[in-house]
Amino acid sequence: MTAAFAHGRRGTRTLLRAVRAACIAILLPLALPAAAQPGNGTGNGVQPRGRTPAVVANALARSGIPESAVGLLVQDLDGGEPLVALNADSAMNPASTMKLLTTFAALELLGPSFTWRTEMVTQAPQRGDVLDGDLVIRGSGDPRLTQEAFWLMLRTLRARGIREIRGDLVLDRSAFAIEARDASVFDNEPSRPYNTPPDALLVNFRAVMVRLLPDPQRGVVTVSLEPPLPQVALAVAVKPDASPDCGNPFAKLAVDVQGTAAAAKVTVTGSYPLACGERAWPISVLSHREYVAGLFQQLWRDLGGTLTGQVREGSAGERPRVLAANVSPALSEIVRDINKWSNNVMAQQLYLALGAQGQGPGVPATWSRSSQAVADWARNRRLSLPSLVVENGSGLSRIERITPKGLSDLLVAAFRSPVMPELMASLPLVASDGTMRRRLANSGIAGQAHIKTGSLNDVRAIAGYVLDARGRRSVVVMIVNHPKALAAQPAFDALLGWAHQRP
Q1: Beta carbons of 194 and 344 less than 8 angstroms apart
Q2: How many domains does the chain have?
Q3: How far does Cα 236 stand from its chain's mean position?
Q4: Residue 488 and residue 458 in contact, taking contact as beta carbons nearer than 8 Å
Q5: How far apart are CA 165 and CA 121, in angstroms?
Q6: Does the model's pTM come out above 0.85?
Q7: Using CB atoms within 10 A of its CB, is residue 381 exposed (0-12), middle (13-18) or buried (19+)?
Q8: What is the span of the domain harbouring residue 248?
Q9: Which one of 303, 328, 353 terminates a domain?
């Protein structure tokens, strides 16, 4: 995270990639869709309309995945009957492809230029270099309030001549009214970044980076935490591995997090290859309240500031004076981070923003208000999503459901929407960036498809747009709900290749 602090946008992308790399969610086995007629794709290059292509059916057979566990649909954007359809009306867990619903709805309801504003405000007077009272940090649910942005607000306070805060640090998190969620409930992995719950004052994704910096000349590995929060202790017993090949840098490394929401101890043990260079592994520690408190105290002290009071929850009161503010990047950029890197907490923050829009000042966002906002939007758009179940809008859920046809209809509607350029640009480009950057690099489809991916234990999914060799564009959706879903990648790749080269 030091890179993020020093290098701005580049560092933010590094953190997003690192968080994505750590986000391997674990689900219980899922109910499978009802059995359907098996695909009868032929092997002679002629594809009967609506049938599963032979290359896809064969890949599924080799992976041991029955077609009854697969839903897929390929639809030409010019209209007509689907080119391929299998279990298209079966409700399935879509994993992170559910983010397509959240980001499309947000782009239309909030607008591509929508931003979030975080403020540091006060009712107290300033006397010399002393703020004689409380400082309030008022959050609005910014999905990407990073450490460097937080530091810049504190730097603005110092630029105003404030050195001592002779009062409390008050955290105003009232923009969200959601129940507290135990981060261990989903899969008993509370320190995994994907389990970070949303919050009105989410800072730095609540992430701490375990940084490993090898020095081959001295034969040592230095381990540190960034940011170095005062409530988080570090214990290290890491040996250097002198093997010439990097391989998996974390294969022989263990990171253990113990503690409470108020304090934690991070223990790093094992060995690390010197050949791997500098790497970072993100973890989620502390509560939102304690994380913001610790980060403020650390950065404010580094800037020469002091805080004499306590950290507590509260509100800004009537007409406070704004001392510093941060405006988020525009929604058009936020959805790129969400979809390119499949960031779950950002998606949940955005989903909650839908519940606050149009409610009037002071009305907090709730899950139920967001659900109603999405339902109203879909109804007004005449989108038929009869099997839709949305828990948090990110796909990190055991209960979220949508049909392949529902996803396809959503993408067709998005392509005809004024916000199509923003949504399409947010999807990973095959063999180029995001979660598709290492897929199909040496194939004809490289750079020719924008595909959102989804992955959970027992779930794999893709959904997006494919441009074929003749310049025709189609919507491609494929979902696998099966214990062997991890083995389905050759089938996904085969479907994308077929959609690009179809007759």
Answers
A1: yes
A2: 2
A3: 29
A4: no
A5: 12
A6: yes
A7: middle
A8: 1-30+116-328
A9: 328
